[in-house]
Each structure stands twice: as C-alpha cells, then as structure tokens.
Design goal:
Layout: H1 3-14, E1 20-21, H2 41-50, E2 53-54, E3 84-92, E4 108-111, E5 132-137, E6 146-154, E7 161-167, E8 171-174, E9 187-188, E10 191-194, E11 202-211, E12 219-232, H3 236-240, E13 249-255, E14 258-264, E15 271-280, E16 293-294, E17 297-299, E18 302-304, E19 308-310, E20 316-320, E21 327-338, E22 344-347, E23 351-356, E24 362-368, E25 377-378, E26 384-390, E27 397-408, E28 418-420, E29 423-424, E30 435-441, E31 450-456, E32 465-467, E33 473-479
Antiparallel strand pairs: 1-2, 3-12, 3-22, 4-12, 5-11, 6-9, 6-10, 6-12, 7-8, 7-11, 13-14, 14-20, 15-16, 15-19, 15-21, 17-18, 21-22, 21-23, 24-33, 25-32, 26-31, 27-30, 27-32, 27-33, 28-29, 28-31
Helix pairs in contact: 1-2
C-alpha cells in the first residue's frame, strides 16, 4: 500500500471513528464539515508516513469525529465550531425499564446472528439478549460541541469478528480492533467520537452487533457505557452548576524518579475528586498493545491502572517512575469531578514535554511474551503456556515486576493456577467473571537469561481463567 492510499484509508476509517493518523498523546481534533474533509488529505498523508495511528482512550477520545454528511438545511443550529469549555456531561447506561432497557440477565451481552439458532445454545438466557441499548439524555443537542461513546468491554469469545454499533439508526461504527478477531483473549475501553447529527435529545439507541468469525459463538459483553457531550464556553449547564468561572490546569514535574502532579485553579471546595492520566511507553494494561499510549481503564466506572486519584485537597498525587523506561514527551492530564454536579466532568489541557531521564548504567525495559497464545484460556485441566525471554543474567537485575491482566472465570480446584518459572502468582483470584490487572514484585533470583516459563491451568468445565491481551510481561530494571 502506498503512503497516499494509506492516508486515504486512514481518512475513511476516521469517518467511522476507528483510527486517525495522529500522535497517540495528542487531543482529539475539532469536528469538520464534509467540505473540509479533503483539506485533511495532505495532513493524513504526512501522518501516515511519520506518525503512529491513534486509538481511543478511556480518558477521552484522541481521534477525530466523523465529518458531517450532506448539505445542512438553512435553519440548522450547530455548536461544533464554538470554543471548548473543557466540560463534558456524562450519561451512563442503566439497565432497567425506567431508562428504556428491558433487563436481559445480569450483564449486557451481544451475540452473533446464529447464536439463537444453535441447538446447543438456543435455550440459554444469554442468547435472548438483542444487543440494543438506550441511553436517555435531556440536553439540547444544538448546544453540544461534540459527542463520544465510552465502553467497558470484555472482548468476548476469541474469534468473534466485526464488532460494531449503530447509533440511532444512522451511522454504524466499528469498534476498535481489540484482537478477538485474531483469536486472542482481549478487553478494551474505547472512546468513540460520534458524528454530532447521530445523537439526539431523548432516548439514544445503540444497536451493538458482531459476527461469528472463527469462534463457536460470536459473543462479547459491555459492562458499562457512557454517552458524553462536550459543552462549549458559556453553556447553561456549567452556569447552573456554579462553575462558569472554573478553569483547571495541571502542574507536573519530574523530580528524580518521582512524577509529581497537582491540580491548580478553581475552588477546592467544589471538587469531589481528580483522576490523573498519563501517556507514556510502558505495560499496556488496557489492552491496546500500541506502545506509547494513554494508560488506564475503568472497571464498573472506577479507574484502574492510571496515575492515581485524589479525593481531598490539595488534589495531588506522586507517581513512582523508577520502573518506567527512559523516554521523552510524556504527557499527562486530569479529569475533575464536582460535588454539586456529579454528571459534569472537566478535562484539563494536556501537559506535554515531560521526560523520564536515562539512568546512568541502569536501564528499564518491558519484556513481553515471545508469542501471545491464541485463545489463551484454560479449563478442563488443560494448561496453556508461553515464555518471556530475558537478555540478561539474574545477577544484573535490580528489580522486576510481573504485570498481568486476566478475566476471572475461576481456577476450580487448582491451587497454583498461574506460575512463572514454577512459582505461583495469584493474578486471577476469585471467579467473578471480571477483568483484573495485577502487578507483583518478582525476586531477581527467580529469573534467568533466556526463556522464563509461564503456565496457566484451571480444571473448571465452563469458563476458567483467560489471560488477556497484551499478555503477561516482566518490567525489569537492570544494570547494563
């Protein structure tokens, strides 16, 4: 594929919210009209050659919304060109009739078209789920600057393909590729920018779907969903909350091997909590596997794997970066939540240009598995294994950490269900069928140059333990 054709393909994909040729740490771009689409081609060409593809993130979308389609009537009122206030209003999915959602089991499930017709599945309650979700809003959409849909998803059965969502019967958006179509066990947390004319004041309908792909039953779960509206400067919802004069900013400094973050601006008494997020190269705990990226995800709306949350003044956190690889242009931002307006959040401007300086005689690297196994789950006492190659002797290692993301279907009666070089690590405790991210210190003496063996085992007959993308990894600080 030529760079120009790659640019054109990226442009087409950006129009359905999958990927945009932009720095992964850059903020989302302003929505453009259809007439402006071709003006982006040269920029797309350059980005296709020189920049990585951006991917949506839980702290806010980094890719552009689709261009508007067709010629707008003369009386059309749009707020997409108004300056941003930094405020967003959130509308979370609630699975009950009062919010337009007939309950269909304890979790929101999406099935392939054949699931209800397979004789071994047709009587299961899971296949009765129709994949339709409604999220009601009561905001005048002519006053909204942008919209995005955030999802907490378990990737589903490995091999499930073509996961997608249609918004109010208008645009169909493919969900960003999480690896399940390639037979990997995965999880993902996309923020999908929506065409502004796809949303409305009232019940917003999201029809999710998927195809069978290469699996026995095309299936995935959405644990949480949130429809977010960006508000322009002067919006009445901001004024009603008493926050018209609020302008938050993030102070960030690297002092030695500590990253110090603090929110500034506004009245501390108004603030309920502040979440801190970072864009850097490290272990990809949210499943993206793209290297340098915005980190963090949510589980039942609670942030995980981010830089920290402050719930009281002075709304500051300190992050130990001694196990981060040396790197430049680390970016950070904060998400501010308010006591009197729980549906309003404020995104601070992104602070860039931070550096984790090289250490004299010492290096930190992330070592992934040599091969991430397809369908990396275990049940019926059938183990799965892989290796993490290391290029140094244990005597050179100062510190090491084991990072793992699992889906806990339960180990059954197996006690040592996850081992590294024969040593058990409790990375998937319980059997709650949820995603768990764990970090364990590893004694350097347990490791060695060459292949370090990972084995996972469960004796359950149904779902056991899944090891999710990007797979286990060792973060190692060693002397060069």
């Amino acid at each position: 594929m030529t760079p120009l054709s790659a640019a054109l393909r990226l442009r087409r994909e950006s129009e359905v919210g999958v990927g945009v040729p932009a720095d992964a740490c850059r903020p989302r771009r302003r929505q453009r009209s259809a007439g402006a689409a071709w003006r982006a081609i040269l920029g797309a060409f350059a980005a296709a050659v020189f920049a990585p593809r951006a991917t949506a993130q839980p702290s806010g979308a980094t890719n552009a919304p689709p261009a508007l389609e067709g010629k707008a009537p003369a009386q059309t009122v749009l707020a997409i060109e108004r300056p941003s206030s930094g405020f967003w209003v959130e509308h979370w999915f609630v699975g009950d009739l009062a919010h337009g959602n007939p309950p269909a089991g304890g979790r929101f499930r999406v099935n392939d078209p054949f699931a209800a017709f397979q004789k071994n599945f047709k009587d299961r309650k899971e296949v009765r789920a129709n994949g339709m979700m409604q999220i009601p809003t009561d905001v005048d959409v002519t006053t909204v600057r942008a919209a995005e849909l955030y999802l907490e998803t378990w990737g589903g059965h490995a091999g499930t393909a073509n996961k997608r969502v249609t918004v109010n019967g208008r645009t169909t958006y493919p969900l960003p590729d999480d690896g399940t179509a390639a037979d990997l066990c995965a999880h993902s947390y996309p923020s999908i920018p929506l065409r502004i004319t796809d949303v409305l004041r009232g019940y917003n309908v999201f029809q999710f779907a998927c195809d069978l792909g290469t699996t026995f039953w095309g299936h995935y779960i959405i644990d949480e969903a949130c429809l977010r509206f960006e508000l322009p400067v002067g919006h009445e919802l901001i004024a009603q909350a008493g926050l018209a004069d609020y302008h938050g900013a993030l102070e960030a400094n690297v002092v030695g091997e500590k990253l110090e973050l603090a929110l500034t601006g506004g009245r501390e008494a108004d603030i309920a909590s502040v979440e801190f997020y970072g864009c850097y190269a490290g272990y990809e705990e949210n499943g993206l596997g793209t290297g340098r990226q915005w980190h963090g995800f949510t589980r039942k709306r609670v942030p995980q794997g981010h830089l920290g949350t402050a719930t009281r003044p002075p709304f500051a956190v300190t992050q130990d970066v001694s196990m981060w690889p040396a790197q430049r242009d680390v970016a950070v931002r904060a998400i501010v939540r308010f006591k009197a307006a729980p549906t309003l959040v404020y995104r601070t401007p992104v602070r860039r240009g931070l550096e984790i300086a090289p250490r004299s005689g010492v290096e930190v690297r992330v070592f992934h598995v040599a091969q991430l196994p397809e369908r990396f789950w275990t049940r019926a006492n059938k183990p799965k294994s892989t290796v993490i190659p290391l290029p140094m002797d244990a005597t050179h290692i100062e510190r090491a950490e084991l990072h793992t993301v699992t889906w806990t279907g339960g180990p059954g009666n197996v006690k040592d269900y996850f081992t590294l070089n024969g040593r058990h690590f409790p990375v998937a405790e319980g059997q709650d069928h949820h995603t768990h991210y764990t970090v364990f210190s590893v004694e350097p003496a347990l490791l060695h140059r060459g292949d370090n063996a990972i084995e996972v085992r469960s004796d359950t007959m149904e779902h056991g333990i899944e090891v999710l993308k990007p797979g286990p990894a060792l973060v190692v600080r060693y002397r060069k």
